[in-house]
Amino acid sequence: MEVVYYPDPVLRRGGKPIPAIDEQLRATASEMLEVMYRYRGVGLAAPQVGLELDLMVLNPSGDKKDKDEEMVLVNPKIVERKGSEFGEEGCLSFPGIYADVERNLEITVEYQDLEGETKKIHFDDFLARIIQHELDHLTGVLFVDRVSSVEKLRIRGKLQELEQKFQAQT
Ligand code: ZN
Questions:
Q1: Where are the domains of the chain?
Q2: Which of 33, 145, 149, 166 is surrounded by the most beta carbons within 10 Å?
Q3: Ligand 1 mean position to 11 CA, how many Å?
Q4: Residue 4 phi, psi dihedral angles, 5° rounding
Q5: Where in the sequence numbering do the catalytic residues fall?
Q6: Are 47 and 71 in contact, with CB atoms under 8 Å apart?
């Protein structure tokens, strides 16, 4: 399992609802966590490893040792949002690119855990930002879609570099 880079079209396909939470899904989630740590990320969505699943993993510390901060969200949905704030984001599918993105400050998310239990949890600040970023991946939205035109201009050269690299591989 490897991270897929922009502009791979799989990133635009997003995820699909997961009908059953089973051993295979648990194995996929734990492999995704390994990939996330290996690439030094704090969050990873299934489309970023080429899987069309409504699945995300995260750990705000980005440190494998902080097991208790790991989260796996299956079929997540935002049911409430509040406030907004700009903050810098990066993405494992866009190596070397960082840009300001506006996100809600607080969100309430409904999802299933790997036991199949439905949870409704309130998140704020950094965790809320990570989850909104990863949720976007599940609908094929990328963080560069949400940046201002000034930011877009600033990162345009780096995006073109990634596009050229991708074309050279295919
Ligand atoms: Zn991302």
A1: 10-169
A2: 33
A3: 9
A4: -90, 135
A5: 134
A6: no
